[in-house]
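Quick start: read one record
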Amino acid sequence: MVGLVAAATVVAAVSSYALVLADTDAPGTDRDETVAATTLSRAHTAITSGGVAVPARLANTTGAAPPAYELHVTLTAAGQSWRAGSQPPADPATVAADDRRVGVAVTPGRIRPGRLRVEVWQ
């Protein structure tokens, strides 16, 4: 049991470190990219436990977008995909998007590399 807790702590620490590095924005990003990055951070917080994304928590992301914005969230890992939110518009020029790598608990005790993606628009 102690070994399992230690392993989970190490995974959480490494994931947090990697996420901080992945979230570093380049200078000069525009407002839409900032909105997408902020929304991604909020969505990540809403679905993670101990730094690992839990697909069953995807519905918690509905409040991640700022007021007056629509949101679509996709979580993928191990050939599986989970989605929440509205369908994005057909014109990709009107959608701001951002994504990050995450560890995903595909089943209890089985964590696989994955990707969390948000799309926001007005």
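The chain has two helices and six strands.
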